[in-house]
Structure formats: C-alpha cells, structure tokens
Structure prediction request, 140 residues.
Amino acid sequence: MTKDMDIDFKVNSPLGTEQFIGLLVGSTLGERRPVNDSVCMQGMLDNANLIVSAWQGDQLVGIARSMTDFHYACYLSDLAVHENYQKLGIGKRLQALTQEQLGPLCKLILIAAPAANGYYEQLGYSHNDRCWVKEQATGV
Prediction:
C-alpha cells in the first residue's frame, strides 16, 4: 500500500458485524476479541457511542470504537488498522478524529496491548499504572 491511496474517514457511519470482525482478524486485534461470538460483536457495535472508521472504497480498513460522555472521559476500546494498511498514519488519524468529537477537557483512555506501548507513548499518551480490570466470573 502507498501513502497516496484514498482513505475516507467517517464518524458514526453504519458498518456490518462481519466487516468489523474481518477488520479485527486482519489487524491481529481479533486475537484478543470474541470474534467467534457474533452476538457479542454486534453488541460491541450497537452500544459504542462513538465510532470513527477508515475506508478504502467499501472496504473497512481501520476503526476507533469508543464509549464516552464527550466531556470528561472517553474509553477507546478498539483501535485497529488492517495489517495491509498499517504504518500509513491511519491509526493516528483515527485517534485525532476521535479527539475532535470530544470536549476540550475530555481524556482519551485506553488499555494497550503490551506490544503497542511504544506506539501510544510517541503519540503523547501518558502511562498510568492505576488501571484495574475485573473479568466476569464464569460458571456462577
């Protein structure tokens, strides 16, 4: 892929569950998401209130999926760019467009995959070791 390709960025544009799953699988984020559970994946799309997507024609090539109050906190749950489109600035643009939708005091919060720590640091994110995650109990 070349940097002169036409990528269209859209805010809260409809997209299908299969498109979303295909992108996650093609970006390796699918390794850490329930891509075999289409009900869960559809719920992830339906209940996000801010989705910025990147398209080449009708192909979804990137996504920033968030839940936010638009004023104080925005949890960027999924940032994914298809492997064939990485290192072209698409992820950086998805984050910038996400921030443009938010109020001036709103913090962008995410949990990074260990291999991505250096990426976020170079974009101006600060590391916070106070994050806690509680998984749902299974078999209860």
The first helix runs from residue 17 to 27. The longest strand covers residues 59-68.
